[in-house]
Amino acid sequence: QVQLQESGPGLVKPSQTLSLTCTVSGGSISSGSYYWSWIRQPAGKGLEWIGRIYTSGSTNYNPSLKSRVTISVDTSKNQFSLKLSSVTAADTAVYYCAREVRDGDEYYYYMDVWGKGTTVTVSS
Amino acid sequence: EIVLTQSPDFQSVTPKEKVTITCRASQSIGSSLHWYQQKPDQSPKLLIKYASQSISGVPSRFSGSGSGTDFTLTINSLEAEDAATYYCHQSSSYPLTFGGGTKVEIK
Question: In chain B, what percentage of residues exceed pLDDT 70?
């Protein structure tokens, strides 16, 4: 079955760019009609959706982060990536990648597969 | 932005007891509401899709109901392994949002 694995630096300095990659195994990132999402969770807090990229490459971002976020896909490596610029301590969180699918007769998607998450700390 | 309000925030429950968690949306979202379980230091796990549809491999004691703005997750006959935080999530409109979570503790 499909598995997701986040990777990237665990420590990022303030004002720099956070860069994470999600590697998809057990299936092709470009097959099927999926969205590939990023979600984050500050320690002890709830989940915040960051944005997503469709199989075709189109993207949707959370307006609260849109000016700083870029999500891209590399089909040759079966990966998708997150870049978050101008980070501050408020961006410290566990970052998850997830796959979104929809049932055949439904319009809306849901997240059925999640990575284990990677902790990113913003500190000098 | 659609705000999802969960209640209660915390619940301490005896094994075999029934648990009911509610999620209220700030506007109608049809049935595009999904439930997740998150145990400490784990990623969220899908429990219920489209408000009431079961997920393969998830115990039958978990069920969901509702549509529009009011939704419920029910855990019948709680087991010790159900200690976790539960989140509702809407995929009706951007930005996608999650409820604040309900932590279920086993007495």
Answer: 100
